[in-house]
Automatic annotation (TrEMBL):
<feature type="domain" description="EAL">
    <location>
        <begin position="1"/>
        <end position="254"/>
    </location>
</feature>
<protein>
    <submittedName>
        <fullName>EAL domain-containing protein</fullName>
    </submittedName>
</protein>
Length: 254
């Protein structure tokens, strides 16, 4: 068994699943939506973390069919939330560089939206700075094309890459997600707090809204609220959960 062989079979054998981690509006406490997070369990019952298999899926190109499956499942889940009366919930989907740069990507997104009957304005695509700058002019074109039908874009893991400020100016994304590491350290490290505050201010000046990731404590949440951060996601407000857990959980919020 090599991981590559396993990965090649995993889609056919139904070994992938998605978890959904809730995201909240910080000002109102209202549920905003959820990020879809991919999980792989082998037939032997081994859980392989995405940080191990996603790089391999990218190297082998398998991320294209896997990513397509993720997009489809995430949209199906969002459609179910919508049909259950949660018409404002947004599903966020991680898109890898190879997938985003594929010529077929914009059509693939449109097709999934159509086939699943998902309102395009309920979908947010998360791409990293690294993905966006690969081929910036082309990335901007793809973003504009999909934003034109209502799809939203978030710059993921913000602050961990080469953080090119020019990206924020040139790339008309809707949201940015401040990486977990800054949120984790901001209560002890004044520098991290200063960075988080500055990123929120800069983003707002440029018309982007901000999600803080990896919020684990009430203290972090309060600080982020003071800083006017728009949304939070993290273990404090909700762990990644299965779609049926998420459904049961949204019922309790009503
Ligand atoms: O929960 P967490 O361990 O799921 O995720 C680890 C990393 O894997 C994160 O960087 C996340 O962006 C990435 N990831 C999770 N799900 C997906 C997915 O469906 N597609 C891609 N490309 N990356 C994902
Ligand atoms: O796509 P992205 O790289 O942003 O993936 C989010 C990652 O953050 C996932 O691996 C998810 O499981 C993880 N995560 C979500 N909430 C928390 C949290 O509160 N603390 C930490 N340490 N990680 C979290
Ligand atoms: Mn993400
Ligand atoms: Na992130």
């Amino acid at each position: 068994f090599t991981m590559e062989t396993g990965l090649r079979r995993a889609l056919d054998r139904g070994e992938f699943s998605l978890l959904f981690q809730p995201q909240f509006h910080l000002a109102t406490g209202e549920l905003y939506g959820a990020e879809a997070l991919l999980r792989w369990e082998t037939p032997e019952g081994r859980q392989i973390p995405p940080c191990e298999f996603i790089p391999l899926a990218e190297e082998t190109g398998l991320i294209i069919p896997i990513g397509q499956w993720v997009l489809e499942q995430a949209c199906l889940a969002c459609k179910r939330w919508y049909d259950n009366g949660h018409t404002s919930l947004i599903v966020s989907v991680n898109i890898s560089a190879l997938q985003f740069q594929s010529d077929l990507f914009p059509d693939a997104v449109r097709q999934v939206l159509r086939q699943t009957g998902t309102d395009p304005t309920r979908l947010c695509l998360e791409i990293t700075e690294y993905t966006a700058v690969q081929n910036l002019e082309r990335s901007i074109r793809i973003l504009k094309e999909l934003a034109g039908i209502g799809v939203k874009f978030a710059i993921d893991d913000f602050g961990t890459g080469q953080s090119q400020l020019v990206l924020l100016r040139k790339f008309p994304a809707h949201h940015i997600k401040i990486d977990t590491t800054f949120i984790r350290d901001m209560m002890e490290q004044p520098d991290d707090e200063a960075i988080v505050r500055a990123v929120i201010g800069l983003s707002h000046s440029l018309g982007l809204t901000v999600t803080a990731e990896g919020v684990e404590t009430e203290g972090q949440m309060h600080k982020l609220r003071q800083m006017n951060c728009d949304r939070i996601q993290g273990y404090y407000t909700g762990r990644p959960m299965t779609s049926s857990q998420f459904k049961a959980w949204t019922k309790r919020l009503n």
